Amino acid sequence: MRRRACLVLVALAVFFAALAPLLRWYAFPRLAKVPAGQYQEMVLEAKPAVLLDYGTLQSKRVEKLTIVQTLKGNVEESERIEQTAGRDVVVWDCLSYVQGPDGRMVSQIPERYIFDAHTQEPVHATGESVDGDPVRREGIEFKWPFLTEKRDYVYFDAQARTSAPIHYKGTRQFRGLEVYYFEQTIPWTKVPFPKKMPFPGIDAAALEKQTGTTRWYTTKRMFWVEPVTGAPVNGEEIHKEELRGGSLLSGREKVTAFAGHVKMRPDYVDSTVELVTSQRRLVLLLASYLPWGFLSLGGSFLGLALWLEARVHRRPGAPAEQPSPQPAPV
Question: 307 lies in which domain range?
Fold first, then answer.
């Protein structure tokens, strides 16, 4: 009976020892994914800021500028693209809506971001765009991969429509979480005017051609990323835009269109940290807790089997070893 129990325990030990790497290296990459129907809203503020008054074309200091970013999963489009892509795809319809201190719109830029649900790598498909213009993204945007590494990544800049490295700058503590800090600096770059301008009747596509005035932009982008989920828990930008040259500026070389240090509003930081903390536990369950638990369980079963096997060979009632006979004296 004990020998049969030993065999069962050895079988269980082999099963759980084999299940641990299978769960970590096979199941986890397939189960951990961004949901296709996710919806997220984020509010950022620059307090104070410098903003261009398009009525007078003069820069002025304002108390606050607000940026509302929304990410909405387009399930119908993701299912359509999956039919030809052959993998799980997420389609985010994004909108960055900028409003001044009076609540009036300054600019709004829509995006369609298409990416692999598991790896966050871009998926190139019809509809991938920024402000209605087709783009071909390279690198990540908005979210890092699950189990983010301590290295530089390529990050897509929607204003410049180009990708550039975003640099890993070290590990930090943020609201009780260990996070990786990343920085990216975009040097002064000529960028297109937003198609929806803050005053009606202006064709943004023809503005540069008709006036010769161009729009330029630079930013220092900062992210605090929770590495298990790959989700940023905080983000900031030191952002500046200028209009340069042309008849629109009446002979001036340049004028500041916007300048400010953009930060996430504190209540959205709190809610983001809470959400990411709960998601972190789920990812760790698949990536660490269950694999290590199964490996430990397999080791326990093997140890118990060896202990029982040793007990079988030392069971009570076994005949004692008899001393060998000694030769009789002559």
Answer: 2-21+286-312
234 Cβ neighbours under 8 A, 6+ residues apart: 174, 179, 223, 224, 264, 269, 272
pLDDT digits (tens, 9 = 90+) for 257-276: 999 999 999 999 999 999 99
pLDDT at 282 > cutoff 70:
yes
254 within domain boundaries: yes
Number of domains making up the chain: 2
In SS3 terms, the chain reads as CHHHHHHHHHHHHHHHHHHHHHHHHHHHHHHCCCCCCCEEEEEEEEEEEEEEECCCCEEEEECCEEEEEEEEECHHHHHHHHHHHCCCEEEEEEEEEEECCCCCEEEEEEEEEEEECCCCCECCCCCCEECCEECCCCCECCCCCCCCCCCCEEEEECCCCEEEEEEEEEEEEECCEEEEEEEEEEEEEEECCCCCCCCCCCCHHHHHHHHCCEEEEEEEEEEEEECCCCEEEEEEEEEEEEEECCHHHCCCCEEEEEEEEEEECHHHHHHHHHHHHHHHHHHHHHHHHHHHHHHHHHHHHHHHHHHHHHHHHCCCCCCCCCCCCCCCCC
Same domain, 212 and 252: yes
pLDDT computed for residue 64 by the predictor:
94
Same domain assignment for residues 59 and 11: no
Distance CA 36, CA 198 (A): 33
Same domain, 16 and 36: no
Q: How many CA atoms lie within 13 A of 22 on its CB side?
A: 7
In a domain, 62, yes or no: yes
**254 and 298 both lie in a single domain:** no
